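Q: I'm building a small set of examples for a reading group on sequence design. Run inverse folding on the following structure and report the sequence directly after it, with nothing in between.
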């Protein structure tokens, strides 16, 4: 066996050969490179540690396979120049479901002409605002055996009796007639219906609440007059809105408009913080739209995307986000018009004044998952930083030292030749 025996052979496997201290050469440039390397290593390692401790939200897109879900729509909108009794909220969707004059879970707040609050009405049942204004039942309804005239309309019970002004109005709606002359109806005169309406003619209205909608393409609109179906068409009675001497228009302020799953809290702190980190905001928030025209139509086209958040602690939160495109036009302008680019534009149907929200549900679902780097990843990155910086620094130092040595050697050779030509001794 060789010198040292088996241990000598094993020692020959050492890949980290050592040099004697006496043959090490230390330079000033090497010292600067050492300091610079330490600073770079410390900086990069700190950045890697911060990244290791940071929680990231990683997005992924999948097909939305949910079935039978309903969405809850929260809205808060103010109409400075439309009184509450004129406003009707209607919801319809592609499945054929329609809800007219929706008041369930809706708060209507009357505003004076300066925007100050007057009174609030919250209905827990599907009951029209005009019924609240005029009194759902007149004095005649208290008289047993009384049967008021429906004036040609269709009564709700089929017995031909309309015992209040609101019942007469509903009978007109079922018949597809416009309710234009309440002063000629006995029930309305006794209830003082016209006087109550005129007293509120200059008011504005704030509408806030929740609307439950199917998770399909649909439409929610706020428009004047009672809506009814006639020959499979959705029709609004616009006469009370357009014939009055007081100017009304659908200029509005959208305080908020958002979607969320039923039973979910849209103000949940986890969801709010996650959306803030991703800069997800509701586009229809604190939006003001103005017009001086009564016969004016505002339309918002929304693309709604289901959005989920999966947090590190196992919490799962459902939410929604949407994009919106706004479109508006004056319904009094007829024929073709030119847009700013000179293109001819004509409208093939007559619209209805009001504010229309047309929403479409995306078939895709976005899921944001909280992730954090593992400690093994941080350790590997730190080792790579240290080894990489030291290796590069060593190459640079060796290159600079070698270049200096070659320059010194050339200077020494040049000095000997010069001395020989001059005949001088060094």
């Amino acid at each position: 066996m060789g010198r040292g025996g088996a241990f000598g052979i094993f020692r020959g496997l050492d890949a980290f050969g050592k040099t004697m201290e006496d043959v090490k050469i230390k330079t000033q440039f090497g010292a600067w490179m050492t300091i610079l390397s330490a600073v770079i290593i410390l900086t990069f390692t700190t950045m890697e540690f911060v990244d290791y401790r940071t929680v990231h939200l990683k997005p992924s897109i999948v097909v939305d396979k949910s079935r039978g879900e309903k969405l809850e729509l929260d809205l808060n909108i103010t109409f400075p120049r439309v009184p509450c009794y004129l406003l009707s909220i209607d919801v319809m969707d592609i499945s054929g479901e329609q809800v007219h004059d929706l008041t369930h879970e809706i708060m209507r707040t009357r505003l004076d002409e300066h925007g100050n609050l007057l009174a609030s009405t919250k209905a827990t049942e599907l009951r029209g605002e005009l019924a609240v204004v005029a009194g759902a039942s007149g004095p005649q309804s208290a008289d047993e055996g009384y049967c008021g005239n429906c004036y040609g309309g269709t009564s709700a019970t089929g017995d031909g009796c309309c015992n209040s002004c609101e019942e007469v109005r509903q009978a007109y709606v079922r018949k597809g007639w416009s309710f234009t002359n309440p002063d000629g109806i006995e029930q309305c005169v006794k209830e003082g219906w016209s006087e109550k309406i005129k007293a509120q003619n200059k008011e504005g209205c704030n509408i806030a609440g929740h609307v439950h909608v199917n998770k399909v393409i649909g439409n929610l609109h706020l428009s004047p007059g009672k809506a009814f179906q006639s020959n499979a068409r959705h029709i609004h009675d616009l006469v009370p809105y357009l014939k009055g001497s007081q100017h009304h228009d659908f200029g509005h302020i959208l305080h908020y408009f958002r979607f969320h799953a039923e039973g979910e809290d849209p103000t949940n702190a986890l969801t709010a913080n996650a959306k803030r980190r991703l800069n997800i905001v509701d586009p229809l928030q604190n939006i003001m739209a103005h017009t001086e025209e009564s016969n004016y139509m505002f339309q918002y086209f929304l693309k709604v995307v289901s959005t989920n958040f999966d947090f590190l602690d196992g919490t799962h939160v459902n939410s929604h986000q949407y994009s919106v495109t706004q479109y508006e036009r004056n319904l009094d302008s007829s024929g073709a018009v030119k847009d700013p680019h000179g293109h001819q534009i004509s409208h093939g149907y007559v619209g209805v004044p009001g504010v229309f929200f047309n929403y479409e549900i995306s078939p895709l679902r976005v899921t944001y998952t909280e992730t954090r780097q593992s400690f093994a990843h941080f350790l590997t990155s730190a080792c790579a930083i240290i080894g990489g910086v030291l290796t590069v620094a060593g190459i640079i130092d060796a290159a600079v030292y070698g270049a200096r040595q070659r320059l010194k050697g050339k200077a020494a050779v040049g000095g000997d030749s010069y001395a020989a030509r001059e005949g001088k001794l060094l």
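The longest helix spans residues 375-422.
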